[in-house]
Specification:
The chain has 25 helices and 21 strands. With 666 residues, the chain is an alpha/beta fold. Strands 3, 4, 5, 6, 9, 10, 11, 12, 13, 14 and 15 form an eleven-stranded mixed β-sheet that branches. It has an eight-stranded mixed β-sheet with strand order 1-21-20-19-2-16-18-17, with helices on both faces. β20, α17 and β21 form a beta-alpha-beta unit. α11 runs parallel beside α18.
Length: 666
């Protein structure tokens, strides 16, 4: 937009001057000078450098950016949709409770490598105290594709799913280690699928062939017809009672799995999913995956920044709600004031309008299928949200692709998920997403600061030339001199890229995704400073001419005036809202290095003979530097006063709104 606007202005100037009878050479020279002076040539390079620096910084914090524009988009994120397990929680699943044959057993120890024992009512018990308990733990160990291997550092490493690893550890605590299970040979398997929410494996043992099944209560309780008792006999199964136990365990934040078995009549699996029926209920296994401490802080930071956080999980609704409550999520609540989880079954029955409203208002979504993640992303985007979505599986790829920021897991994610994402978390941690959003906001802030600095400086150069044309005077600066100034000051402006994040960055609401960078306030600021730069350079040039200085010396003064004013304005642009003394004079040393470097090259431009010949400059008296420094300080003070005035106006408007609200309430 700027390029076309400036080229159009240069074309108009060319035509007007030619119609006024000016020579074509001088007119063309003025038009070229205007275009060179006004177009911010360094802006594309600065934006690219800024985003690249952001990518490097985010990588150090555990977020790998795959697409450069995603760095800036993160700053406008309004909703983060996150999986629960491993992202919001520790991903250190530990079985703590087993309910079998109506009795509750506890397992002590935490983590995959920790010790522990089997207890009932606080006292240690042998695993064979209940045949139902033993079979439930055996089902978890056999219906399992995960291995625990000891690495070079002697720590146990999980090769597979953490949930299955927790089941393996629980079985070992009851004495069901690999030698004890060696007599069970796997014959066939029905792998876990999110559409079915269970896994089944057929094993041949000393007592015949057994089909062991593990999965969600929603998927398996209706398939159970009998229960294994503590003494090994078969007893009646009451689904309602077990469902109450599931909800009680889930309310404690436990992830609950159902363990069941069946003995096929012919010892084979005919049609995989049809054979998972007429099951014998063995027990419930409850495991804890505590919320990450840093995730709690990150959720609080996001909510304080006006970013909604939504948990989307395949777990039981009560479990998801309990974890969401611990994390401090905010969303729709039931009549008792508790967070309400929306299930995948409820989502599938909603119209598009209903889905959009529920997606916006609710914070917890449970028993959600992968295709429903895509529907949720689209629903949120239809409400104007900028959505970041996490995922790790192959089925999550469409939702990751649809989201404004697709976030894949680096540790447990699939290659397909990573390829579809814009960002990869190397630590699979929700706190890293929050840190990346903060970094994105800081990068956008610095981008606006650079634009706020470069537009008035280029605008001022253009005004100098327009003034010369309007008043019919000699050009105060030549195109080659303006090109020098633009290239040199572009390097100076890049020091703003390294400006530290301002305090209170995560207390601001998200900026609208389609908000213009050059808003009204920045437009007024640009116009004021452009006038100041143009007036200072043109005024100093005319003053030098009145003192009888040559055109070369007068132009040297004009060029140096532009640069000195730009340096003064640079310090004011380190924050567009806070006074310079509040952000600290020396918190960004690159600004001082850039200012010192600019002074050095301008001295060379002014006093080195070869530079005088190349750029048509001439040496000037030292007192002119004092004049230019005073003008630069004046522009700096002008910008600071404008910031203070804007801040005061906001406070006054805020007080007026508050008084209006109080009057309305009265």
């Amino acid at each position: 937009v700027l390029v076309w606007l400036i080229l159009g202005l240069a074309g108009v100037l060319l035509v007007v001057e030619w119609l006024r009878g000016a020579s074509l050479a001088n007119t063309f020279n003025a038009a070229v000078a205007l275009a060179v002076g006004a177009i911010p040539e360094g802006l594309p390079a600065a934006v690219t450098i800024l985003l690249a620096v952001g990518v490097s910084t985010m990588a150090k914090r555990g977020a790998l950016i795959r697409r450069l524009p995603a760095v800036e988009t993160l700053g406008s994120t309004t909703v983060i949709c996150s999986d629960k397990t491993g992202t919001l929680t520790e991903n250190q699943m530990t079985v703590t409770t087993v309910l079998a044959a109506g009795e509750t057993f506890d397992l002590t120890g935490v983590g995959f490598d920790g010790g522990g024992e089997l207890q009932r009512e606080g006292a240690r018990v042998a695993p064979d105290v209940s045949q139902a308990l033993l079979e439930a733990l055996r089902a978890g160990a056999l219906c399992n594709d995960t291995r625990l291997v000891r690495g070079a550092d002697e720590d146990l490493k999980v090769e597979g799913d953490p949930t299955e690893a927790a089941l393996t550890v629980a079985a070992r605590k009851a004495g069901l280690d690999e030698p004890a299970l060696a007599s069970f040979t796997r014959l066939d398997v029905v792998p876990f699928e999110s559409a079915h929410m269970y896994m089944a494996s057929l094993h041949k043992g000393t007592d015949g062939t057994t089909l062991y099944v593990k999965g969600s209560s929603d998927a398996l309780l209706a398939r159970c017809v009998e229960r294994l008792e503590a003494d090994g006999r078969i007893g009646p199964f009451d689904e309602a009672i077990v469902q109450c136990a599931v909800e009680a365990m889930a309310a404690r934040g436990l992830r609950v799995l159902v363990m069941a078995r069946r003995t096929p009549s012919d010892g084979t699996l005919r049609t995989a999913h049809e054979d998972v029926a007429q099951l014998t209920f063995l027990g419930l296994v409850g495991m804890i995956d505590p919320p990450r401490a840093e995730a709690k802080r990150a959720v609080a930071a996001c909510l304080g920044a006006g970013i909604k956080v939504k948990m989307i999980t395949g777990d039981h609704a009560v479990t998801a709600t309990a974890i969401a409550h611990e994390l401090g999520l905010e969303g729709a609540r039931d009549d008792a004031g508790r967070l309400r989880a929306v299930t995948g079954r409820e989502l599938s029955a909603m119209s598009e309008q209903e889905l959009a409203a529920v997606a916006d208002a609710s914070a917890v979504f449970a028993r959600v299928a992968p295709e429903q993640k895509l529907a949720l992303v689209r629903a949120l985007q239809s409400r104007g949200h900028v959505v970041a979505m996490t995922g790790d599986g192959v089925n999550d790829a469409p939702a990751l692709k649809q989201a404004d920021i697709g976030v894949a897991m680096g540790r447990n994610g699939t290659d397909v998920a990573r390829s579809a994402s814009a960002m990869i978390l190397t630590d699979d941690n929700f706190a890293t997403i929050a840190a990346a959003v903060e970094e994105g906001r800081g990068i956008y802030d610095n981008l606006v600061k650079f634009i706020a600095w470069t537009l008035p400086t280029n605008g001022g150069e253009g005004l100098v030339l327009l003034a010369a044309v309007l008043f019919g005077t000699t050009l105060p600066v030549l195109p080659v001199q303006l090109l020098w100034v633009n290239l040199a000051t572009a390097l100076l402006g890049t020091s703003l890229i390294f400006e530290p994040r301002e305090p209170g960055l995560m207390q601001r609401p998200p900026r609208p995704a389609r908000a213009s960078i050059l808003d009204r306030a920045l437009g007024i600021r640009t116009a004021l400073v452009s006038l100041a730069v143009g007036a200072a350079a043109f005024g100093c040039f005319e003053w030098a001419q009145l003192h009888g200085l040559s055109d070369a010396a007068s132009r040297t003064i004009a060029v140096n005036t532009i640069v000195v004013v730009e340096v003064g304005y640079l310090f004011a642009c380190r924050s567009l809202s806070l006074p310079s003394w509040k952000i600290g004079l020396f918190t960004n040393p690159t600004v001082w290095l850039g200012a010192a470097g600019m002074l050095g090259v301008q001295l060379a431009l002014t006093y080195v003979p070869i530079m005088n010949r190349l750029f048509h400059t001439a040496p000037i008296d030292l007192w002119w530097w004092g004049v230019m420094t005073a003008i630069g300080l004046f522009v700096f003070v002008l910008a600071e006063v404008k910031k203070a005035w804007t801040a005061r106006s906001r406070v006054v408007r805020g007080d007026a709104v508050a008084r209006t609200g109080e009057s309305a309430a009265g």
